[in-house]
Write a structure and sequence with these properties.
The protein is an alpha+beta fold. The chain has one domain. It has one helix at about 40-65, and strands spanning about 5, 5-10, 20, 30, 40, 65-70, 70-75, 85-90. It has a 3-stranded antiparallel beta sheet, covered by helices on one side. Strand 4 (about 30) and strand 5 form a beta hairpin. The chain is elongated and about 55 Å long.
Length: about 90
């Protein structure tokens, strides 16, 4: 599942793809081989989804112009809270 062609799940600290167990769907676990962080697969998907949603919002803010002195200026780079997520999607 972490090798989906459109999205890869990664550990937020190590940026390494987790090993996803082959247990039943309900009991599946994801474990980072780098730091050992482990969580249920559902929790990993939720966290990665929140990361993507925040990234979309930050990218949208960075692309939207602002008015300054009657002129439009690029908004600049928006900062996301990438370091605060246990699991991310890339």
């Amino acid at each position: 599942m972490s090798d989906h062609p459109d999205m890869r799940l990664l550990c937020g600290a190590c940026r390494i793809a987790p090993d996803i167990g082959s247990d039943t769907r309900r009991d599946r676990m994801a474990t980072c081989p780098g730091c050992g962080r482990s969580d249920s697969f559902g929790a990993v998907l939720r966290e990665a989804g929140r990361f993507l949603a925040g990234r979309i919002v930050c990218d949208g803010i960075a692309m939207s112009p602002r008015v300054e002195g009657g002129r439009f200026r690029p908004a600049g780079v928006a900062r996301s809270h990438e370091g605060s997520f246990r699991w991310v999607a890339a």
